[in-house]
């Protein structure tokens, strides 16, 4: 699915949750990246709920540009975010997170 070999310039995206091994997100996103000729890759990371704070704290350090979440992460992510858009601010649930160039 990925054109070429990923390197330090490859943008990383992922899904965090438990369980997520059944997710079709990598098929969808990696196909889209290839069609759009983007140097990007999408992974699935299964994170035990008790380790969610460690995963969330470390994800920007890995160079991940953005990620999707499953429950219970959709609610647990809120204290880690710098900004919360209007719908998420009201319903207190987040589906996707974008990390800017500064890793925030």
Please render the helix and strand layout as text:
Blueprint: E1 11-17, H1 25-35, E2 40-46, H2 52-59, E3 64-69, H3 73-76, H4 86-91, E4 96-98
Parallel strand pairs: 1-2, 1-3
Antiparallel strand pairs: 3-4
Short structural description:
The chain is α/β, with parallel strands linked by helices and 104 residues long. The model has no long low-confidence stretch (mean pLDDT 87).
Description:
This protein is 28% helix and 22% strand. The protein is α/β, with parallel strands linked by helices. The model has no long low-confidence stretch (mean pLDDT 87).
Multimeric organization = single chain
CATH fold-level topology: Rossmann fold
Written as H for each helix and E for each strand, in order along the chain, the element string is EHEHEHHE
CATH top-level class: Alpha Beta
Beta strand %: 15-25%
Major β-sheet strand ordering? 2-1-3-4
CATH superfamily: Leucine Dehydrogenase, chain A, domain 1
Tally the beta strands.
4
Distinct helical segment count: 4
Give the C-alpha Rg.
14 Å
Number of domains: 1
Provide the residue-averaged pLDDT.
87
The structural class is: alpha/beta
CATH architecture designation: 3-Layer(aba) Sandwich
Low-pLDDT residue intervals, each spanning 5 or more residues: none
Q: What percent of residues adopt helix (DSSP H or I)?
A: 25-40%
């Amino acid at each position: 699915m990925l054109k070429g070999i990923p390197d330090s310039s490859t943008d990383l995206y992922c899904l965090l949750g438990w369980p997520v091994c059944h997710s079709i997100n990598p098929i969808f996103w990696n196909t889209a990246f290839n069609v759009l000729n983007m140097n990007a890759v999408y992974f699935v990371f299964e994170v035990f709920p008790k380790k969610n704070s460690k995963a969330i704290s470390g994800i920007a350090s890995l160079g991940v540009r953005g990620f999707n979440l499953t429950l219970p992460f959709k609610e647990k992510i809120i204290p880690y975010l710098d900004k919360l858009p209007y719908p998420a601010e009201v319903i207190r649930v987040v589906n996707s997170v974008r990390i800017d160039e500064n890793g925030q």
